[in-house]
């Protein structure tokens, strides 16, 4: 496993070395992590609110499932483009201020729906929300990683990911009651208020941690072979730590390509769930609107369990020296494949209990990879490029996953026209998602190898440093 620290040399490459980062306060690290958890919760509710209001919106505005799926997809159209642009400047922006600005924008964008609800306004605000939300994931994770060393990032990454689950479990039922009592527009107002409150708290407690990009003196010239043995995670003792690797040396690795396959496939599943799960519970399984919305978070119970169990176990395994290739790649890809298989069996299930169980298992296993996907990519990326590369990975995977809600809507309309059974359409949509996740997990397991690719990227970075020193 590639370590954050460099093995001691008998002869140091430079006469002066930078001081290692001071050990962070665990209280402060956890306060920041929990604030970041709250931001992921709000980000998820900003998107999930559309699924909670799907049935009344389609009824009030006269929309088909395909048209509503298109509105949901609008949130994914500008996001990848903005993230690609953001990746070019991300590593030069302050993390605290960037995240504050993004959350403030999310909250402001929700307000027009409350005052002027229409299909056109939904499309416009979803487009803008996707643009404002897109860079946030990489910023949140970079901020979290600045407080935790490489071998302790699995659990914080899992915690950030569970913001989505906590949002559905804790706040979705509250939003459903508000929507039922006051109207669906009040759901958008509620999530906007949550964002404004978070911004106030972040302004006082937000701070970048000591594991951000290290500040080092100018290095003495050294060979690529010597530097290739140093940490790909950016050791403070590495004199070339401030040098960036050629971007192509990261993007052409099996780890980056496998990350795209895995993240885009699971991301497509998440978008389908966000858009159509409450409708499935209501139109497919026969629950009332309030009950269906309250059950929105049920599949996330297994997601939370798997995320925390996998994240905590993975961190312990890495500390014991188990290769990340095994902990993060082979096991992570295997879990995603198992989740895909569970979803693929959904059309064979009858009743209510068995479909719910398969959804919980499939969704939980598939989304467990969020505990290791970003840490895997961060492991092969120099600290000076971490936010940019994570943004780029999220942008490209987002582009690949854009068609998800529309495809699901087309499946629903087709099933309604052919059989008239809403349940058949929803199970077919989840079957499609399961196949995609199965393929993504298999590609990740086959292609990603963080130890190997970290050394390749580090060698390319050291070669560049040697040429420019």
From TrEMBL:
<dbReference type="GO" id="GO:0022857">
    <property type="term" value="F:transmembrane transporter activity"/>
</dbReference>
<keyword id="KW-1133">Transmembrane helix</keyword>
<feature type="region of interest" description="Disordered">
    <location>
        <begin position="222"/>
        <end position="242"/>
    </location>
</feature>
<dbReference type="InterPro" id="IPR050382">
    <property type="entry name" value="MFS_Na/Anion_cotransporter"/>
</dbReference>
<dbReference type="InterPro" id="IPR036259">
    <property type="entry name" value="MFS_trans_sf"/>
</dbReference>
<keyword id="KW-0472">Membrane</keyword>
<feature type="transmembrane region" description="Helical">
    <location>
        <begin position="155"/>
        <end position="180"/>
    </location>
</feature>
<feature type="domain" description="Major facilitator superfamily (MFS) profile">
    <location>
        <begin position="32"/>
        <end position="452"/>
    </location>
</feature>
<dbReference type="GO" id="GO:0005886">
    <property type="term" value="C:plasma membrane"/>
</dbReference>
<feature type="transmembrane region" description="Helical">
    <location>
        <begin position="256"/>
        <end position="277"/>
    </location>
</feature>
<feature type="transmembrane region" description="Helical">
    <location>
        <begin position="325"/>
        <end position="346"/>
    </location>
</feature>
<feature type="transmembrane region" description="Helical">
    <location>
        <begin position="99"/>
        <end position="121"/>
    </location>
</feature>
<protein>
    <submittedName>
        <fullName>Major Facilitator Superfamily protein</fullName>
    </submittedName>
</protein>
<feature type="transmembrane region" description="Helical">
    <location>
        <begin position="352"/>
        <end position="377"/>
    </location>
</feature>
<dbReference type="InterPro" id="IPR011701">
    <property type="entry name" value="MFS"/>
</dbReference>
<dbReference type="InterPro" id="IPR020846">
    <property type="entry name" value="MFS_dom"/>
</dbReference>
<feature type="transmembrane region" description="Helical">
    <location>
        <begin position="186"/>
        <end position="205"/>
    </location>
</feature>
<dbReference type="Pfam" id="PF07690">
    <property type="entry name" value="MFS_1"/>
</dbReference>
<feature type="region of interest" description="Disordered">
    <location>
        <begin position="1"/>
        <end position="23"/>
    </location>
</feature>
<feature type="transmembrane region" description="Helical">
    <location>
        <begin position="428"/>
        <end position="448"/>
    </location>
</feature>
<feature type="transmembrane region" description="Helical">
    <location>
        <begin position="289"/>
        <end position="313"/>
    </location>
</feature>
<feature type="transmembrane region" description="Helical">
    <location>
        <begin position="27"/>
        <end position="45"/>
    </location>
</feature>
<keyword id="KW-0812">Transmembrane</keyword>
<feature type="transmembrane region" description="Helical">
    <location>
        <begin position="65"/>
        <end position="87"/>
    </location>
</feature>
<feature type="transmembrane region" description="Helical">
    <location>
        <begin position="389"/>
        <end position="408"/>
    </location>
</feature>
């Amino acid at each position: 496993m590639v370590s954050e620290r460099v093995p001691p040399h008998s002869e140091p490459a430079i006469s002066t070395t930078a001081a290692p980062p001071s050990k962070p306060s665990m209280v402060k690290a956890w306060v920041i992590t929990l604030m970041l958890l709250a931001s992921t919760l709000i980000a998820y509710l900003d998107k999930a609110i559309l699924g909670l209001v799907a049935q009344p919106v389609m009824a009030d505005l006269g929309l088909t499932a395909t048209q509503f799926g298109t509105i949901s997809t609008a949130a994914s159209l500008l996001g990848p483009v903005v993230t690609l642009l953001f990746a070019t400047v991300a590593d030069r922006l302050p993390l605290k201020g960037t995240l504050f600005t993004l959350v403030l924008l999310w909250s402001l964008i929700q307000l027009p729906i409350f005052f002027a609800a229409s299909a056109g306004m939904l499309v416009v605000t979803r487009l803008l929300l996707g643009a404002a939300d897109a860079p946030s994931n990489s910023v949140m994770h970079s901020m979290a990683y600045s407080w935790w060393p490489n071998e302790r990032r699995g659990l914080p990454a899992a915690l950030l990911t569970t913001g989505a689950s906590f949002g559905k479990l804790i706040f979705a039922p509250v939003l459903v009651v508000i929507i039922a009592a006051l109207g669906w527009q009040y759901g958008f107002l509620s999530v906007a208020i949550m964002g404004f409150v978070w911004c106030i708290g972040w302004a006082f407690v937000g701070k970048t941690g000591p594991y951000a990009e290290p500040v080092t003196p100018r290095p003495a010239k050294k060979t690529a072979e010597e530097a290739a043995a140093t940490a790909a995670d950016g050791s403070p003792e590495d004199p070339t730590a401030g040098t960036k690797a050629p971007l192509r040396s990261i993007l052409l690795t099996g780890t980056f390509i496998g990350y795209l396959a895995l993240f885009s496939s699971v991301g497509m599943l998440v978008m389908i769930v966000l858009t159509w799960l409450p409708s499935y519970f209501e139109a497919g399984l026969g629950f009332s609107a309030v009950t269906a919305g309250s059950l929105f978070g049920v599949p996330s119970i297994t997601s939370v369990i798997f995320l925390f169990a996998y994240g905590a176990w993975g961190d312990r395994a890495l500390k014991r020296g188990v290769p990340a290739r095994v902990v993060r790649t082979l096991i992570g890809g295997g879990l995603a494949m198992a989740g895909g298989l569970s979803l693929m069996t959904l059309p064979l299930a009858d009743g209510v209990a068995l479909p719910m169980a398969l959804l919980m298992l499939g969704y939980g296993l598939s989304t467990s990879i969020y505990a290791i996907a970003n840490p895997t990519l961060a492991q092969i990326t120099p600290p000076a490029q971490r936010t940019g590369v994570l943004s780029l990975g999220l942008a490209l995977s987002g582009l690949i996953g854009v068609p998800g809600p529309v495809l699901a809507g087309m499946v629903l309309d087709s099933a309604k026209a052919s059989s008239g059974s809403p349940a058949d359409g929803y199970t077919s949509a989840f079957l499609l998602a399961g196949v995609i996740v199965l393929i993504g997990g298999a590609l990740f397991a086959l292609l990603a190898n963080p130890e190997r690719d970290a050394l390749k990227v580090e060698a390319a970075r050291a070669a560049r440093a040697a040429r420019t020193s």
